[in-house]
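Lecture notes, unit on protein representations.

Consider one protein chain, 364 amino acids long.
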Amino acid sequence: MTSNTNLFSPVQLGSYNLPNRIVMAPMTRLRAIDSIPNSLMAEYYAQRASAGLIVTECTMVSPLSNGYINCPGIYSNEQTEAWKQITDAVHQKNGKIFLQLWHSGRVCHPSLLNGEMPIAPSAIAAVGELHTPEGKVAMETPRALETDEISGVVQQFALGAENAMKAGFDGVELHGAFGYLIDQFLEDISNQRTDKYGGSVENRARFLLEVVEAVTKVWGGNRVGIKLSPSNTFYGMGDSNPKETFGYVIDALNRFGLAYIHLMEPNPIDLKNKNVMNPVVPYFRKIYKGNVIANGGFDKETGNKALANSDADLVSFGRFYISNPDLPQRFEQNAPLNEPNPKTFYGAGKEGYTDYSFLEKVAS
C-alpha cells in the first residue's frame, strides 16, 4: 500500500517538527584544523540549513578516535566552544543539526595517535590504507581493549554527548556504521572476544546498547539517533548472519524511544560480495517501531518511492549535498543538480566545499 508522503511532507522527528524529510547525511570533509571546527565549516553547514535535518561529519569522542587528518573533535572545551559558531549559523537559517559522535577504533594508525596503538574489540587489523602524517600506510593490528577499559570508552561517548549539548546542537547521532568502533564490537568478523562483550549476538551488541543508554541519559531518547550499516564490507567488515545480528540490535533499540535509526543500503563495492543484504531498509523497517532514515544511493525519485511505500520516514543524501547546498529547492523545482568534484571531497579550503552555486546564482 502506498501513501501520499513525499520528500516535502513535514515529519515529527523525536521532539522536532521538521518541514521536510530531506536529511543531509553525515560526510567526512576534513576541514577542521588540529581537530578544532572553524568559520569555514560554519558557512558550509549554514548553506545547507534548508534540509529537514543536518547530521554533521563524524566527530571524535576522544584523542584515540583520530582516524583522519583534520577531523573535528568534541572531547575538549576548545572544540566544544568552536562548534557553537556552527550551531548558531545553522539556527540563524532556521535549520536543525545533530552532531555525529564517533570513535574510529581500529580504523586508525599510531602516527595519528602520537605513537599509541589504536584500540578495538579484538587484535584484528582493518583492511585498507589511511592517509597519515607519514603518507598513505596500511592499518596496523590494534590493541584489544581490556574488559575493564570498556566502560571508560562508553563514558567518552557520554562526555561527547554532554559537550554537544553545551555547543548548542539539537541532538546527536551515534556512528554505529561503516566499520568503526561500535560496528567493530557488533559484527563477528571483527569481534572475537570471549568475555561478556563477545561471542553471542547479545554479547556483541552489549557495547552498542551501553553507549545508547549512556547517551540517552544525557539527551533523552527523542533527541538521539544511530546509524547502522548491515551490508557494509569496507575496511574488511562483515557478519556471518546480518539479519540476526542487526535484527536483534534494532529490536533492542525500540525500548529507548530514539528519534530515529539511520540505515545504510549497500554501496556498489559491497554488492560485489554476494552474501550482503540487499535491500536493507525494507527488512528492518518491519522490526523497528520508530522513525527510519534511509541512506545510500537515493535520488529524488527513489527517495519519494521509499517514502510512498512506507519503507522509510526520511531519506538522507550525501554526494548530492556536497555539490547542492540548496538541494530541497532543486528537488522541488526539478532543477538541474551541480556535479560534485571528488578531488575536493577531503582537505583544506573552500574549493569544492562552500563554492558550489545556488539556484538563484545559476539563473542570474
